[in-house]
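Q: Hi! First time doing this. I have a protein sequence and I read that you can turn it into a structure. Is that right? Here it is:
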Amino acid sequence: MSQSMLHLVCPHAGCHATNRIPENRLTQSPKCGRCQQALLTAKPMVLNDLTTAKVIQKNDVLTIVDFWAIWCQPCLMMAPEFEQAAAQLPTVVFAKLQTDQMQEAAAPYNIRSLPTMVAFRGGNEIARQSGALPSSQIVRWVRSLG
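A: Yes, that's right. Below is the predicted 3D structure, encoded as structure tokens:
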């Protein structure tokens, strides 16, 4: 029986290599083949104009992107909650995209209100949730996505 291989983009600045990982190794702290750092950090990675599309389109694992802006008070209030949720779901990729700074990267996702979290898997949007949430509700929402 062959095991399922998943693509996972390295979250570390300067690397962002796409790695192939056996699905059953996701819980075993897989490391990047290029930079040898952890692929799953249980912390949100910061996206930019160069990394956003790659992370969203190449990751086969559930990827949650928080679209936010520096002037958005609810976004700033939710930031530590988003970090706490990431710490509780170590096999899910959490990422943040600052829409006022990275307008080109954010444009294809038609974000109409902030903050908005969008769930992706294998390049496809599978759900979105607008409004600031506490970490417990973020975790519940992410777990409901399977």
